[in-house]
Design a protein that fits this description.
This protein is α/β, with parallel strands linked by helices. 33% of the residues lie in helices and 27% in strands. Bound molecules: adenosine-5'-triphosphate and magnesium ion.
Length: 236
């Protein structure tokens, strides 16, 4: 099978006043279509940097990124915006929902950017939120929702466009352990049911067990890649 995501000798350096930080220092990875992949490593090892480069949110200093054989590192900002809208969903640790919008409006937003009519997008958002157990919360704003509910809204927003690839940066980092398990179950089930590729960052070895493949990052480099034979299956 051809990989859907390829990174070649990927580097990202940040320059502060007088020092250069090597956040990523030559990363090579390949992720297959439909694979669930965890990126693990200690704080500051470069996990978020890797994810945001793969998702085209930040340009690399050097190296190449191909998604569906398209050269992400060569795209202009407007090409990237369009590519992300068509292919990628992103889930953030801090949810990043629009505070002035209710749950339905937040989830429907990517469909608005795709030019889908208000009626159709509202209906699609309600259907998805209903499936995620949020029927009672369609019209609540983020501040009126618990952390776990907000993360379900943000997962719904990430998948409403049926992206082939879902990226999630510490999606359970702000949640208690019980809610974390629910969110991991939902996210991995959605990805597996849709045959989507899911790449998530975690510093929790237990969460990594949801993945088919576990990429260990140390000091901006791939330390090793484990194939997980006994993956956890979500039960929601
Ligand atoms: N915008 C930035 N400017 C300068 N340095 C940065 C920037 N973003 C990240 N870094 C540095 O790059 C390195 C990797 O950061 P990154 O956020 O990728 O780590 P991480 O593995 O996600 O850590 P954590 O588990 O704490 O989220 C760190 O040394 C960090 O301080
Ligand atoms: Mg991080």
């Amino acid at each position: 099978m051809e990989p859907i995501i390829v990174a070649k000798d990927l580097k990202k350096f940040y320059r502060t006043t007088n020092i250069r930080i090597k956040a990523l220092d030559g990363v090579d990875i390949e992720i297959l279509p439909g694979e669930v992949c965890a990126i693990v490593g200690t704080s500051g090892s470069g996990k978020s940097t890797l994810l945001s480069l793969l998702a085209g949110l930040e340009p690399p200093t050097a190296g190449k990124i191909f998604i569906k054989k398209r050269a992400i590192h060569k795209m202009t900002e407007s090409e990237l915006v369009d590519f992300r809208l068509q292919n990628i969903g992103f889930v953030f640790q801090s949810f990043n929902l629009m505070g002035t919008m209710n749950a339905v409006e937040n989830v429907a937003l990517p469909l608005m950017f795709k030019g889908i009519s208000r009626g159709t997008r509202t209906q699609a958002a309600k259907k998805l939120l209903g499936k995620m157990g949020l029927k009672q919360h369609f019209y609540n704003k983020p501040a009126e929702l618990s952390g776990g509910q907000q993360q379900r809204v943000s997962i719904a927003r990430a998948i409403i466009t049926k992206p082939e690839i879902i990226f999630a940066d510490e999606p359970t980092g702000n949640l208690d352990s019980h809610t974390s398990v629910q969110i991991m179950d939902i996210m991995t089930n959605v990805a597996r049911q849709r045959n989507a590729t899911l790449v998530f960052v975690t510093h929790d070895p237990e969460k990594a067990l949801y993945a088919d493949k576990i990429i260990h990052i140390i000091d901006g480099k791939v330390d090793r890649i484990d194939i997980n034979e006994q993956k956890l299956e979500g039960n929601i």
